[in-house]
């Protein structure tokens, strides 16, 4: 095997965070760009590892709480024949497949050390992003921090999830508390500097996990977190009171232009959501098919503070509206069902590991309100890796053996389903 399963999963996270949007501009022919090639290549690599695992007699982890997500994939695939934009439909399906492949591949091949190895690598990757982001801010103070990613909201999403990863590593004594302290303070500053509103909402939720998990350090963590929250709150108040002068922005050499007040991005998102929901009522149950939202144009759309003068397709920036428009009420119910399935894991097991899943779900549900949470598979794959690790630990505890990897070929599918049920 050219690339080991642990490297496949780590590279998947890198491609989905650090290089997610930058690959879009490397190649673009008829809507097929670098991102889509990356997604398809990741699907092929994941399918290859999965096939090897099946041939070797590995068992697939298939927790019941993930079934709504699998059903959503099935609906997306079935909608492709009538999709308005087939290329975008295939892109969306390929994105949905990556986290589930991470779940299956890690469940088939990983032992505890493999999970922890990926977590450590992700932790150091986040620290590198913080360093680069800080340098970038001082070099280009007029622009928002991107730190190897030119979508600040996704950077915030990634950094908040790594709060969960780092606190778990500290709990297991695989990472020093000083490293976590530095990360909490530094990441809170970087999240503020990105100006991503959704990051300012997610970060306090991530800190809740730190409070819950590191009880022996409760006073110190509380003081550090309060300091971070004060900084976040002050900058947030400052951002909301930025001058109200008119702003002019041109994108794509004049192909798309808008003029509006500061904070106008919220205005065009509301306009787009209004347009999507207005069309959705004509096909409320099954929607218009995968990728259909990218075919919606805002040409002629006008709000009180924002005027669109050219035809341009835009990102929905709301996973719930996106799924509702593309897959109707059926898809939206599956999405919400999946989210609340993950939230309820911690209420049953009440372990630090199940807390990773539940608090990761909280961050994902918050992020999906003003962005497409499923589209950034690098971070979503980390949530699915938490789920896989939780299944592994449940099986390990139930069987009482020192190694699950050598046992997997002998464990019946009934036992596997029983201990991975997570309900």
Largest sheet: 4 strands, antiparallel
Q: Widest sheet: strand order?
A: 3-4-6-5
What is the residue-averaged pLDDT? 76
* Count of helical stretches: 15
Shape: globular
Structural class: mainly alpha
Kindly state the percentage of residues in helix.
55-70%
What is the N-to-C succession of helices and strands? Answer: HEEHHHHHHHHEEHEEHHHHH
Total number of beta strands: 6
- Poorly predicted tracts of residues: 241-264, 299-312, 400-420
| Rg (CA only) | 22 Å
Strand content: under 5%
Measured distance between first and last alpha carbons: 35 Å
How would you describe the overall organization of this protein?
The chain is mainly alpha-helical. About 65% of the residues lie in helices and about 5% in strands. The protein contains 15 helices and 6 strands. It has a 4-stranded antiparallel sheet, covered by helices on one side. Strands 1-2 form a two-stranded antiparallel ribbon. β1 (about 30) and β2 form a beta hairpin. The longest helix is centred in the first third of the chain and has 28 residues, at about 110-140. The chain is globular. It starts with a helix and ends with a helix. The model is unreliable at about 240-265, about 300-310 and about 400-420 (pLDDT under 50).
